[in-house]
From TrEMBL:
Matches recorded under SMART domains: HTH_ICLR
Record's compositionally biased regions (Polar residues): 15-28
Domain of life: Bacteria
UniProt protein name: HTH-type transcriptional repressor AllR
Organism: Plasticicumulans acidivorans
Gene3D superfamilies on file: 3.30.450.40, Winged helix-like DNA-binding domain superfamily/Winged helix DNA-binding domain
GO biological process: negative regulation of DNA-templated transcription
Region spans: Disordered: 1-28
Length: 279
């Protein structure tokens, strides 16, 4: 009798459901997301005890959850410093606003225009784990051209994209990356001292673009500028790269202005804004 009187199309509420018929939240999932929120607010990383305290969880529970997230690449652990921080998967998911606007798709038409105007290869890169990672590319049509494999990495201190992104970080972030990654030398032009690098970053902030002058590979030059989100944070950097013979000294200023303008246009499409140039 009761079964017949039950409303058609309304299934029985499963055990553990709320009064409104929605499933109760998973405790482990909720706690895992809480840990990601804690880490997202500390770009320099957090110790296990700090994460546990911030999340209001037992240290053992926190360690178990972080281990699961690490196995899935949502967080990473610096064993030498004992710090936990956000991983690349969380970066991709966490930029939901940018992803919903299709970040690469928004940039690609302007990347194609920049490649056509400059005659050189255009790359788009982001920061992950203290390195630059290339996520999109429009190749030059020239026979001799610069090409990178998507997903490949480059040192921040010895690449145009990397230096542009470093220049938009605060001093604590830069110091943490230098402490962890060092300043490996690749060519005679590589910036191999913190003093030289910081002077270069100050120049980048003043002029609005970075230049890699054979600092990672002999014969190659790169000019890059950062793309910014609604909060002003640098999301990525766009660059023009090619042989030094074509990216001659006389072209660097013009290319720098062109790349910076393209980066600003992409930022605008994303609802972002670039910080004012330093005087």
């Amino acid at each position: 009798m009761n079964e017949k009187n039950r409303s058609v199309g309304r299934p029985r509420s499963p055990a553990g459901s709320t009064a409104k018929g929605t499933a109760a939240p998973s405790q482990s999932l909720t706690r895992g997301l809480q840990l990601l929120e804690c880490l997202a607010g500390e770009p320099h990383g957090m110790s296990l005890s700090d994460v546990a305290q911030a999340a209001g969880l037992a240290t053992s529970t926190t360690h178990r959850l972080l281990g699961t997230l690490q196995a899935l690449d949502f967080v990473r652990h610096d064993e030498r410093l004992g710090l936990w921080s956000i991983g690349l998967k969380t970066f991709c998911i966490g930029n939901a606003f940018t992803d919903s606007r299709d970040f690469v798709a928004e940039a690609r038409p302007l990347m194609h225009q920049l490649a056509e105007d400059s005659g050189e290869t255009v790359n788009l890169g982001v920061v992950d784990d203290g390195e630059a990672v290339f996520i999109a590319q429009v190749e030059s049509q020239a026979m001799m051209r610069m090409v990178v494999r998507l997903g490949s990495r480059a040192p921040l201190h010895a690449s145009g994209v990397g230096k542009a992104l470093l220049a938009r970080m605060d001093e604590a972030q830069v110091a943490a990356i230098l402490h962890r990654r060092g300043l490996a030398g690749f060519t005679a032009g590589t910036l191999s001292s913190p003093t030289a690098l910081r002077a270069a970053l100050a120049t980048i902030r003043r002029q609005g673009y970075a230049v890699d002058d054979e600092e990672h590979a002999i014969g190659l030059r790169c000019v890059a500028a950062t793309i910014h989100g609604p909060d002003g944070r640098a999301l990525a950097a766009i660059s023009v790269s090619g042989p030094k013979a074509r990216l001659a000294d006389a072209r660097l200023g013009e290319l720098g202005a062109r790349v910076a303008r393209c980066a600003a246009q992409i930022s605008e499409r994303l609802g972002g804004r670039a910080p004012a140039a330093e005087s």
